[in-house]
Structures are given as structure tokens and as C-alpha cells.
Amino acid sequence: MNGFVIEFDHVQLAAPPGCEAEARRFFGELLGLTELEKPSGLSNRGGCWFQVGARQLHIGVEEPFQPARKAHPAFRVIEIDRLAAKLEASGVTCKWDYELPTVRRFFADDPWGNRLEFVQPVA
User: Fold this and answer.
1) Higher-confidence residue: 39 or 1?
2) Is residue 44 part of a domain?
3) What is the largest distance, in Å, between two alpha-carbon atoms of the chain?
4) Is 108 a member of any domain?
5) DSSP characters over 17-51
6) 64 cis-preceded (ω within 30 degrees of 0)
7) How far apart are CA 6 and CA 4, in angstroms?
8) Nearest 10 degrees: CA dihedral of 65, 72, 116, 80?
9) 50: CB partners within 8 A, 6+ apart
10) Is residue 105, in this structure, part of any structural domain at all?
11) CATH no. for residue 64?
């Protein structure tokens, strides 16, 4: 082994205070992620956690809040066209990018303006 880091445990996105209902709607209902119960010692900090495959996505409260416009997580998805249509039907703008030949991908913002990437490998 050449290094100490072997994989990601979780990714955290920042959100403004009072973000929980919108996080549940966007990440839970629209993306279909399962919400996880936060540990009791952290539950009073606000935000919420979701399961993403074998990893977790943490939505954490930050004040003052400023969205990440360049830094972003990339979610590997199935049925990318169907997901984009679902997001757009709910008012989320999906910006397709065709620069990588190995994946189909688009970018979209979460409810607070954080950049998100969605990718599906090309068969």
C-alpha cells in the first residue's frame, strides 16, 4: 500500500439553517436516497444524512452559508434521462455536458445552489 486513504466514507454538502425539509424533498423524494438517523450527539446541529450506495451524503448547516459553485460530488446513476426529466419537471435545471466520451453526464444545483454532477457510464 502506498498511502493511508483507501476510500471515501462520506461527502458533506453545506446548506443554510432550516434546510431539512427541502433536503428531504430533493435528496429523498426526487433522488430516491434513504435518510439515515443522525447520531444523538449530532442531531441538534441541524441538517440530515442520506445513504448513497455504500457511502453517505451529509447535509450540514453552515452559517453564513455560501453554495459551492465549482467543487461538487458526482453521483453515479442509472436511467440518467429519466432522472433529468424528473428533476426538470420539478423545476431543477439540468445542464448536459458532452466532454467525456466514457460517461453521459449533467450538472444541476441542489436547492441552495451547490453544484451536483450526475453520471452514467456509456455502455
Assistant:
1) 39
2) yes
3) 47
4) yes
5) TT-HHHHIIIIIIIT-PEEEPPPTTTGGG--EEEE
6) yes
7) 6
8) -170
9) 27, 28, 33, 34, 35, 36, 56, 57, 58, 59
10) yes
11) 3.10.180.10
Is residue 23 one of the residues assigned to a domain? yes
Are 36 and 51 spatial neighbours (Cβ–Cβ below 8 Å)? yes
| 77, pLDDT greater than 80 | yes
Of 115, 118, 113, the residue nearest 82 (C-alpha): 118
Residue 24 buriedness (CB in 10 A; 0-12 / 13-18 / 19+): middle
pLDDT digit string, tens, across residues 3-16: 899 899 999 999 99
- pTM for the structure as a whole: 0.94
In terms of residue numbers, what domain contains 111? 10-121
Q: How many domains does the chain have?
A: 1
Would you say residue 1 has pLDDT above 90? no
86 three-state secondary structure: helix
Q: Number of C-alpha atoms within 13 angstroms, CB side, residue 93?
A: 5
Cβ contacts of residue 74 below 8 Å, gap of 6+? Answer: 105, 116, 117, 118, 119
